[in-house]
Amino acid sequence: MAKKYNLIAIGRAALDLNAVEYNRPMEATKSFAKFVGGSPANIAIGSARLGQKVGFIGKVSDDQHGNYITQYMQHVGVDTSNLVKDDEGHKIGLTFTEIKSPQDCSILMYRDQVADLYLRPAEVSAEYLAQTDQLVISGTGLAQSPSREAVLKALGIAKKLGVQVVFELDYRPYTWTNTEETSIYYQIVAQQADIIIGTRDEYDILENYVGNSNEQTVAELFKYAPQLIVIKVGAKGSYAYTKAGAAYHGYPYKSHVLKTFGAGDSFAAGFLYAVSHDLGIDKALQYGSAAASIVISQLSSSAAMPTVAQIEDFLKTAEVIN
Ligand SMILES: Nc1ncnc2c1ncn2[C@@H]1O[C@H](COP(=O)(O)OP(=O)(O)OP(=O)(O)O)[C@@H](O)[C@H]1O
Ligand SMILES: O=C(O)C[C@@H](O)[C@H](O)C(=O)CO
């Protein structure tokens, strides 16, 4: 019987405050526009825009910002029954963006004592996870307790129930104590995940070593559960590897780049949509690259997530970056 959800994501839902006056440093920016943000929330929203049935497990502040995030996610069709309100006064995470030029963008995160990292194991429901085909785990959820244990509980339940586990490495250094610790927790989850998505730099963090080739990285991970591994390299595109030994190159597409953040989350939503619909790995990489090209041409990450029709339209005239 078909499950209620194609995908449930676990991790942070937060706020992005994106510079409205761009092509200048943050010090000179007076206006910021508010959007829902947080990598797993962005992936959930992007997946819902693509017509996927999506749920979310997380924690938001019990205030106007938490209300806004919950209402926005409901508005785009993400189920928020397991997006709980914090009862200890923790606040929402804020991400300010700086767009000095299309090539020079950065984010500034305010993530001290943020509500998402206080998600408790008791707030992860086996009944909810039984209703999904896929669980998307964001690496940042492993950064601190009790969120770390909540995520590991979700992983254990998913494995027991045969839910496909996707690990989005999503490394945000601000919330971690040191990279050795990150590597330990990343390896625990990566070894049990069915699909892993991350940038080359994030795999270096996972391995706690800089210098391995993609082939060395995937050979090590394929000794464990993973069946499909994606390694992204920004404007140089992406690579996908299967346990059966196939390798694919995802070409990036030319875009009227306004800013580059949001590329990874839109890529994940597009890629996972195509994988869930058995469209093949080449198509999945095309969907990921196209979704990313669309999102980086706009101010927001979450609000710019494309529909399937937008991706198909884009691909009709898309030009590959060589
Ligand atoms: N400048 C660009 N032009 C075209 N496509 C891009 C560009 N930057 C990224 N992409 C596309 O987005 C995909 C993901 O980008 P990237 O490797 O930067 O992920 P990320 O670091 O997770 O992104 P983010 O900046 O959102 O954290 C790339 O594989 C590529 O297809
Ligand atoms: O992941 C975050 O918490 C910040 C995002 O919402 C932001 O849009 C971004 O940087 C995406 O890459």
Automatic annotation (TrEMBL):
Presence of the UniProt keyword Membrane in the record: no
Catalytic activity: 5-dehydro-2-deoxy-D-gluconate + ATP = 6-phospho-5-dehydro-2-deoxy-D-gluconate + ADP + H(+)
Any one GO MF annotation of this record: ATP binding
CDD domains, per the entry: KdgK
Enzyme Commission number(s) from the entry: 2.7.1.92
Keyword check for ATP-binding: yes
Domain Carbohydrate kinase PfkB, first and last residues per copy: 7-307
Keyword entries, A-Z: ATP-binding, Kinase, Nucleotide-binding, Transferase
Protein name per Swiss-Prot or TrEMBL: 5-dehydro-2-deoxygluconokinase
Gene name of this polypeptide: iolC
